[in-house]
Amino acid sequence: MSKKELLDGNQAAAWAVKLANVQSFPCFPITPQTEIIETIAKWKADGKLKNLVFNELESEHSVISAALGSQMTGARTFTATSSQGIMLMHEILPIISGTRMPLVMVNVSRALSAPITLWPDHNDFLAMRDAGWIMFCCETNQEVLDTIIMAYKIAENKKVMLPVLINMDGFIHSYTRTEVEIPDQKKVSKFLMKTKQKNRLDVKKPMTLGGAVLEEEYIKYRSQLHSAHLEAINVIKNVQKKWKDKFKRRYYVVEEYGMKNAKAALVIMGSYSTIAKSAVDNLKSKGINVGIVRLRLIRPFPSDEIRSALGHVNEIGVFDQNLSPGLGGILYSEVKACLKKNKNVSSFIGGLGGKPVSEKDFEEIFKTLLREKKEMRKWVM
Amino acid sequence: MGNVKNNLKEIKTIKEIPEEELVTGGTFACGGCNAIYGTRLTLKALGKNTIMVNTSGCMTLTAIYPFTPYKVPWVHNAIENGASTASGILMGLKALKKDKNTNIVVYAGDGATYDIGLQALSGMVSRNEKIIYICYNNGTFGNTGFQKSAATPYGANTTTTPPGKKSEIGNIFKRKNIVKMMHINGAAYSATASTSHPVDYINKLRRAAKSGGPAFIDLLCPCIPGWGIEESQGSRIGEKLVESGMWPLYEINKKGEFILTHKPKMIPVKEAMKNQKRFQHLDSKQIKEIQKIINTEWEKIKKGGIWTTEFY
Fold first, then answer.
1. A303 and A235 co-located in one domain
2. Does the beta carbon of B60 lie under 8 angstroms from any beta carbon of chain A?
3. Contact between A209 and B81 using a beta-carbon 8 Å cutoff
4. Is pLDDT of B4 > 60?
5. CA-CA distance, B29 to B24, in Å (whole number)?
6. Tens digit of pLDDT for each residue in B260-308?
7. Contacts of residue B96 in chain A, CB cutoff 8 Å?
8. Which of A190, A214, A247 is the last residue of a domain?
9. Residue A32: its pLDDT value, please?
10. Residue B6 confidence (pLDDT)
11. pLDDT confidence band for B5 (50 / 70 / 90)
């Protein structure tokens, strides 16, 4: 039976690991992710995770290398990290997508050093955008739990065979409890029936993995990786639909909030979307019709869905909780590139290193978009 | 193939080495390459129930798509993570309950072991994981064109330690004491070996497999282009290095017992260094200095003082 509990994002992730019948969990502590590994370690010690092999290694680099080794045996593998940790892992991430291993990892976002800080923004997560992984960015603790389970269904699909990275925001998700529905174990197990991984290390069926290629072959592998991403978007939509049928919660690769007849829209991702949605409600109650387009899927990049969500709107803002120094907001350049040129697309950078952005701030962004009717680049600070 | 029981019996002569090849010909390895010869010996000793982990280097380029010489599961990840990749494979096999009858062997170069991969190796050993780690040691970063590693012998000419007017000796650093280090780290078995002494190496591999814990073997592999030697002379030169006392063959078991597995004839180091281009710049005074170091080290070994030697 499903049950409802007050869980923070880290606990929600730990529950998902348990529900997904993960077999192997190499890990290393880093704030604000540590509670995930502590929770699993305690459950393991209490005998609640008999089929999980748990191992704390000596660095994130070793963790992600071990995660690849483990996944290559065909065992369902999970790990989690954050910030400097994912930066240390970076070298191995394209090897995991390149060898087409269906690993699932959570990133608990935290701004990058220097200056060193503990609070969140999305530069750690988005620094991985070219690593070849499927990338989800969550808004709620419930979404974290649900997405981890769905991620295995997506990653292990024969048409996909790609690793999945799921982001939650440090502190705002990781240490804040909200009501989360924990689905029924039997139903999840049935939803996630495991098939035997074809590309695996097995002494009964010897295979060479991670071998070299010459210059004629490399580009073919890369183009296949890209095709798998493009194919994955349909698989993702399908899995999200099945999730709704079985567990009653509906997810979209791009979520539209209050977009019907909206005169201005803000594109955003992560936990700050919730605050922005409140701002939308406040403005609508005053007769100002604006909406939110929340990016839940970052890779494969849902260009068509973004175009369709914003088709009728001309005043568009993109809120970036990240910065590519010397360029600007990362989502801004990606979103702008997929829209028609006749729209005003403005950039708003804020929330770096956990700087609060209030409902009032978001209301001001919408008012600016409606008033100025031109392209702008602004900081919210 | 089935679940063949691992044959880990020790052998006495070269005739007892299994004939079956688990590494085929046809690779891009140099003529006379001792590293690829080492993979053959390794898999002959351990058999089919073995997963081999490679680190980036010359041996990575033995499997170029669509060709592979390996008849056992083989994986390349990156350069510094042979040990941690193996740790993960062990986790996966444990989860699938396949770990009991499978050997996991890492076959990594000395740069990938002494230098960039040392942290992962130390972690693997400290976690007491049942993995055999072989360092195929040619004393240089071979695949990138012969740069100094922490395994490069004192006095060797590499492309980053070239002898010149102001620095005549070549490499001024001593080789890292990695076998002793691995024992102190907690290895169940640690040893040196040489491709020139295949019976000794095969027995050590089988002892490593039987040790039940983390095992480390530092395998001397003469490098044809790196050392500037004749294609046919790899094993001969390895033999001379062993017989001169420059590469002692020994093992340290879990209890810390040091066992010399081959008594060298102690031929002059000059004789061992003779046909190697990497030592050609050394004058007789410098060779004498190296001879003196070797003599001092062996005096210590003879008196049971392996723990105070600096090179071994």
1. no
2. yes
3. no
4. no
5. 12
6. 999 999 999 999 999 999 999 999 999 999 999 999 999 999 998 899 9
7. 23, 73-75
8. A247
9. 98
10. 65
11. low
Q: Are residues A145 and A268 in the same domain?
A: no
User: A-chain residues within 8 Å CB-CB of B85?
Assistant: 65-66, 68-69
In this complex, the residue of A52, A91, A217 whose CB is nearest that of residue B78 is A91
Structural domain for A97, as ranges: 3-247
B305 vs A: CB within 8 A: no
> Number of structural domains, chain A?
2
What pLDDT is attached to residue B2? Answer: 38
- Structure letter (DSSP) for residue A205: S
Q: Are strands B250-253 and A344-350 parallel, antiparallel or unpaired?
A: unpaired
Interchain contact B33–A (C-beta under 8 A): no
- For residues A258 and A116, membership in a common domain is answered with no
**In this complex, do B92 and A211 lie within 8 Å of one another by their Cβ atoms?**
no
Query: For residue B49, which of A204, A304, A63, A79 has the smallest C-alpha distance?
Result: A204
Q: Domain with A35 in it: what CATH number?
A: 3.40.50.970
For A9, residues 6+ apart whose C-beta sits below 8 A from its C-beta are A108, A138, A141, A144, A168, A169, A173, A174, A175, A176
Q: What is the pLDDT of residue A165?
A: 99
Are A73 and B123 in contact (CB < 8 Å)?
no
Q: Which of residues 190-209 of B touch A (CB under 8 A)?
A: none
Q: Do B87 and A214 touch (CB under 8 A)?
A: no
Q: Do A217 and B85 touch (CB under 8 A)?
A: no
Divide the 381 residues of chain A into consecutive groups of 10 and give the mean pLDDT of each group: 97 98 98 98 97 98 98 98 98 98 98 98 98 98 98 98 98 98 98 94 98 97 98 98 98 98 98 98 98 98 98 97 98 97 97 98 98 98 93
Chain B stretch 105-144, residues whose beta carbon is closer than 8 A to a beta carbon of chain A: 119-120, 122-123, 126-127
Q: Which residues contact B152 (CB under 8 A, 6 or more apart)?
A: B139, B140, B158, B161, B171, B173, B175
CATH of the domain at A344: 3.40.50.920
Cα dihedral A186, A190, A192, A194, rounded to 10, equals 110
Beta-strand runs (E) in B209-272: 215-220, 250-253, 258-260
Mention every residue, 6+ apart, whose C-beta is less than 8 A from residue B202: B11, B17, B41, B44, B45
**Contact flag B76-A209 (C-beta cutoff 8 Å):** yes
Chain B: give the shortest CA distance to residue A57, in Å.
7
Domain co-membership, A240 together with A343: no
Say yes or no: B98 contacts chain A, CB-CB below 8 A: yes
